[in-house]
């Protein structure tokens, strides 16, 4: 059944009727008596009515076709809000707007009532959310599988310039888009003891697994609605619940009751909260439990369903694909082995063939020290049976390696899944998967030559690249509808479903009317942001300024510190150098959360706010520089921020940012990238050329060579570079307060991310930006070139590549 464009007049009356009825059913009151939040919930309930029919049909169609289905396992899905994108995808937005207006409700006012589903930290979680959007929009049979955290990533408050973390109780008023499915619950076993026992008269040893604890995993399904098609896939989020019959409470002793209460508290903690990404932190027990919990629940339910509907277990990998998003779900490999061997009685070799033809893995982290590892003691204690299986996988794997590379024990050590008392999750994922990919070209190359080079040596054919992407439906059509309409005017609306067509905007980059229209939209978005900043930060910013924006998690390698040091430098010159002028004022925006235990990151936030405080209140500089820290940056704030940017700061130390995806959101909204040759910046540069982005700084090979040769010295840089020395000294001389720890960090780490080394190049890059901005016609052209060539960074392109090269699935028409 093809998607039928809705006739507004036809659907209006039906929508209105349903909306009035639904509000009464939900709340037992007249519409006029409902709070904004209740109105929002009623609207969401009506939207669901337009979803369920196709949801059921989609699942039936997949069953009838018996096509392969992909399950994208991810410990994070950073969804943000769904109302607007769901309305757009279902083509209900315009009709609903009219209906609500007739009822005196403004649709724009109720969006904010939806909690921002923050079930992710940053790039990795948002990528998963963009991916499931593309899967549904491309009519692909592919679903998400993750965790239903009771608390998402903390809410950030800035108090006296310092980050304070507030628990994110996002489920307080309920979540409109989820469907609890208690009948699909499964049990997950944790802890206890597992061993092999001899049985008299039997040749094979027998597995004993005893003393474990059962945790009930209950799925909450969220429909994933395709853009103007009839596909509705499923995002299945697992919740940990107690699995116990309480009817015998009357007969229990007080001690037994206490024990059960303790058990209940323990179980509730498993899906209680999302861990903040502090990449270097030690693995915590509960985190490993979270990982195995959703993996076991997911794999069990997938295989159970498969076995019910098929009779040949060997067909499994033809019908199911499991995608391991970073190493967090890597226990999918031993969990599949456990189910096939223990529960279905398969021979090890057969189970291994099936498993390794089912699983595929994506790496998202270059920093070798941030690769996930677990202490054997903890792993064994929590997951004893899984540990036995990992040992056996490793034993057989290394046996093969020793045969192929006799005598190369050094190689064996580099490859061993268990090494130095730790389980290496990336190694487990690579060994257990048929495909291993990085997330940008340069990243995939570094995996092959450095991070995973020994694995590349033994499994060269597994390695491939899939450059990340973002959904243009949220980040362009929904977040910047005016810009989307400008594109419609030139290309018709076809580009929305076939993003390759966006390239045709290149035909208009010299059309003065088009550029004028782009400028008008950019100014409107800048005005929106300026208004927000006036009310939230109580700072007035001029929209004629360059809006220079860095929004992303705060991390040393992303170098927010270099950004703020440069602002200090610029401010010094403005104050002290009579020959220096800033022909265009600049507003520097920062946004991003620091992990609660990450001291350097939190001090960086404090420095940004101290500098902002001083500069914003210095009337002598005539507002030439303003500095704004955007509190609590997340998906929803991003939807306002990306469209308002002139300059996109992508300044990570070359080789450190696997890809980045914010860079793509900025580009698609017409910002010029000011960046290093890192992650997907390299490919942005490839798309637009030197004239339409500003590249600076050390290249990845230079960075790597400094590390290898140890021939860089931060003190030398400090001593010989006056620009560096001046701002460094200001960290401790009281200009902005006391930031001795940041000074010490830079020196003691020997400037591990080359902030000082790249400082002069960064100054020049900013000067280049200002030069270019002064030629507004050329700048606007550049902006248009960026928009025109951003289509390749749509996640529709990325997911098409996954579907064709890794998953081997095709679109399914839902009849
Ligand atoms: C690590 C940890 C470790 C401690 C516990 C919590 C936690 C949560 C997440 C992570 C790993 C985060 C990895 C990540 O987000 N990588 C980013 O992935 C993006 C999508 O591929 C990519 O664009 C970014 O460059 C990369 O940093």
From TrEMBL:
Essential cofactor(s): pyridoxal 5'-phosphate
Xref: CDD domains: GT35_Glycogen_Phosphorylase
Modified residues (N6-(pyridoxal phosphate)lysine): 665
EC number: 2.4.1.1
GO molecular function, one term: glycogen phosphorylase activity
Gene Ontology process terms (BP): glycogen catabolic process
Protein name stated in the entry: Alpha-1,4 glucan phosphorylase
Keyword annotations of the record: Allosteric enzyme, Carbohydrate metabolism, Glycosyltransferase, Pyridoxal phosphate, Transferase
Family label: Belongs to the glycogen phosphorylase family.
Described function: Allosteric enzyme that catalyzes the rate-limiting step in glycogen catabolism, the phosphorolytic cleavage of glycogen to produce glucose-1-phosphate, and plays a central role in maintaining cellular and organismal glucose homeostasis. Phosphorylase is an important allosteric enzyme in carbohydrate metabolism. Enzymes from different sources differ in their regulatory mechanisms and in their natural substrates. However, all known phosphorylases share catalytic and structural properties.
Catalytic activity of the protein: [(1->4)-alpha-D-glucosyl](n) + phosphate = [(1->4)-alpha-D-glucosyl](n-1) + alpha-D-glucose 1-phosphate
InterPro entries per record: Glycg_phsphrylas, Glyco_trans_35, Pyridoxal_P_attach_site
GO cellular component labels: cytoplasm
Top-level taxonomic group: Bacteria
SUPFAM superfamilies in the cross-refs: UDP-Glycosyltransferase/glycogen phosphorylase
Keyword match Transferase: yes
Primary enzyme class: transferase
Keyword Cytoplasm in record: no
